Amino acid sequence: MRAARLALARLVWGHWATILARARLRIPRDDAEDVAALVLEGAIRSAFDGESVGQFRSWLNTIVDRRVADYHRRPRLETTHIPEGEDEWGEEPAIDFEGDTIDTTRAIDARLAELSDDHRRVVEAYVLRGGPARDAADEVGGMSEANVHQIGSRFRRRLRELLEGGDGTPGAG
Amino acid sequence: MSDVERLLREFIAGHSAGESPDPRDFVEQTQGAARRELTALIDAYLVRAPRRRWDAAAFRESGAAAVAEGLGRSLAGAAGTWPALLPRLRARARLRRSELVERLAAALGADDRREKVGAYYHEMEQGLLPAEGVSAQVLDALAGILGENADSLRAAGAALRHGPGGAGDAPAFARTVAAEPLHGPAAAEADTGAPAEVPRSPGRAAPRGAEWDDVDRLFRGGG
User: Fold this and answer.
1) B197: nearest CA in chain A?
2) B159/B223 Cα distance (integer angstroms)
3) Contacts by residues B10-18 (CB-CB < 8 Å, ≥ 24 positions apart)
4) Domains and CATH numbers, chain A
5) Residue B126 neighbours by CB under 8 Å, 6+ apart
6) Which of A113, A54, A61, A26 is nearest to B49 (CA)?
């Protein structure tokens, strides 16, 4: 029993910070933990129910997207008054729904898919994992740091075009 | 280095060092197109970020501990993920349990048996009350109070089947639990920060069968 409880704690902890940060990107701070918890519960429930969840990590990311969308569709609870002199909770602060983030994530994947294997590894290592240019160059071999910077800049320029409403279709830019 | 790249790298450095930086603190330092770009890049990093290494002390201080505790109760109980879900929905609605019970009893026309309604609701939060016995009337009332969909509540209450899923760490955990159920006496979890054992509810001493009153039927009779 102890081992099972520790395994559960490790599992939740292992993914908690990342899920919470993804939720915080797109919904108000006060509600992000709630959504992150729902994501983990939903994902673990799926695993127990024998659903084919594929790679658990990918499944978690899918559920984050769904739960964030659910959150923005959900009607807000009415303001509730807590009696006996306690604080009255105000309405949630307005926040822009980064509703296009899901599509943007897919677009990033599509952009990566159009790159050569070496260039994709460079973008992953240098841009998306934030590693040093030298390490990214070493990962593919035979590439200079200047090339790494250039590939990273080109990738981000394409991303900006997409986000600014330019031609975001794979192969463009 | 652009502001977007600098902020992205600062965020990644903090996150990968085991800190919990709030991405909004970084995103809010930018505007317009730069903000959208940074949001997309931080999200792309997070989608790929490695699983965090175990840290018992940090776990205990984090919101993850409450999630794991609720899930622990869920896995040991008879009411699906209600032990994890219901307390959090109540917190989201900014309701103390006594206030929720008061509203629930009123919605069920059981103002004069608020204590009994409270005992049953306690069992729901603790995973001690089989979800299939809880009537649609109770779930509808609860959904209205908590701002949730009654069907979602019903689905969450469905018993966990403890069957292994696909690849990955959670299904592996599910198999572990299937072989090693979470029932039984509390273990010395303090050093790990792992969830505590489920307390026994006084509501379990409720009458059976012919002795049921309306409240018993609402919470145990199904329908």
Assistant:
1) A5
2) 17
3) B11/B42, B11/B45, B12/A129, B12/A130, B12/B45, B13/A130, B15/A17, B15/A18, B15/A21, B15/B45, B15/B46, B15/B49, B16/A130, B16/B49, B16/B50, B18/B52, B18/B53, B18/B55, B18/B58
4) 2-73 (no CATH), 98-163 (1.10.10.10)
5) B73, B77, B83, B198, B199, B201
6) A61
**Going residue by residue through chain B (223 aa), what tens digit of pLDDT does each one get?**
789 999 999 999 999 999 999 999 999 999 988 998 999 999 999 999 988 999 999 999 998 999 998 888 888 888 888 998 999 899 889 999 999 999 999 999 999 999 999 999 999 999 899 999 999 999 999 999 998 889 989 988 887 765 444 445 565 666 655 554 444 333 333 334 444 443 344 445 555 556 888 999 999 988 7
> Any bridge partners for residue A49, and if so which?
B163
- Yes or no, beta carbons of A56 and B167 under 8 Å apart: yes
**What is the C-alpha radius of gyration for chain A, rounded to an integer number of angstroms?**
21
- What CA–CA distance (Å, rounded) separates A126 from A137? 9
Q: Do B166 and A54 touch (CB under 8 A)?
A: yes
Mutate to test the interface with B, among A12, A39, A91, A150 (most CBs of B within 10 A): A12
Is the ipTM higher than 0.90? The answer is no
Mutate to test the interface with B, among A35, A45, A78 (most CBs of B within 10 A): A45
Instruction: Give me the residue label for tokens 């908690």.
Output: A16
Tokens for B74, please give them. Answer: 């869920």
Q: How many CB pairs under 8 A join A and B?
A: 250
A11 touches chain B (CB under 8 A): yes
Beta bridge partners of A88: A81
